[in-house]
Amino acid sequence: MDTWMRFKSNDGGIVFGRVEGGYLHEYESLERPVPTGAVLSSRALTPLAPCAPGKIVALWNNYHALAAKLDKPVPAHPLFLLKPAGSVIGSGEPIQRPPGYAGKIVYEGELGIVIGRRCRNASLEEAADAIFGYTPVNDVTAADLLNENPHFPQWCRAKGFDTFCCIGPAIVSGFDWRPARLVTMLDGVERQNYPLADMVFSPAEQVSMISQDLTLEPGDVIACGTSVGVGSIRDGAMVSITIDGIGTLSNTLSAAGRTDAAGQSGTAATAGVV
Fold it and tell me: In the UniProt record, does the keyword Metal-binding occur (predicted)?
């Protein structure tokens, strides 16, 4: 398995590459993973979200346990919505409460699939080959907005605010998701602990079936949906999502108009990589 991260350098540039032993071995890009020969100390860099997706495809009702709890039928095709690129933040960055919104904000710990090559109408084999790697995702939701208008469920608005898609801290390629579990902690208290193998659609099936509907581009992320244990976050609370073999994604909810400077520390983001 290889661990990949994305950083901001001291001159303001963005570098991407494979992390090993505290050093970044720089590659040209996720789309073109060719080594440049540069080796940089990660301590001198500021961690960012490990990719910059053009879109995030977020699934709903993709775990058997959650479908059973909600008394919903298992879908025949992935049920999804799109989150905008501007909603993405990395580990350690604050989730911002939307101005004027005092309602419930919800965490959803999820496995994220990172696309490595353009993918359209892909077979299962082609879809598996198009997966660059995996990363933790927190699909944040302003829950009270979902049904604010009884005539139109506002999935994209409720989930599309800036900072409402936490990704990282790293992408791991060659990761075997089948035996892994996802654990979500809220201020140190376990809230989710579920097996990724309970997914309705496997990652390759998701990529293949979604690619029949829309073109997936390098860097795009598919958030595989969540299972039981979703809950609300109060202002100032930290949500940490861990997938053994990948790392821990941690973000704190800040009140509207405020930034938690401690939450932007690069140290916590780097320390979450395993």
Answer: yes
Q: What is the chain's length?
A: 274
Pairing of strands 55-60, 221-223: parallel
| pLDDT value for 10 | 87
Distances from the Cα of 28 to the Cα of 6, 32, 72, angstroms = 11, 6, 44
Token pair for 236: 């100032």
Q: What is the pLDDT of residues 220-266, one digit of tens each?
A: 999 999 999 999 999 999 999 999 999 999 999 997 655 544 344 33
95-96 vs 247-254, strand pairing mode = parallel
CB 4 within 8 A of CB 16: yes
Q: How many CB atoms lie within 10 A of CB 153?
A: 14
The amino acid sitting at 188 is G
Non-local (6+) Cβ contacts of 256 within 8 A are 96, 97, 98, 99, 100, 101
| Residue 270 token pair | 């780097």
- The domains of the chain are located at 48-267
What does the block give as tokens for 113? 């699939």
From 3.40.50.2000, 3.30.499.10, 3.40.50.300, 3.90.850.10, which CATH number describes the 48-267 domain?
Answer: 3.90.850.10
- pLDDT tens digit sequence for 95-106: 999 999 999 999
Does the pTM surpass 0.90? The reply is: yes
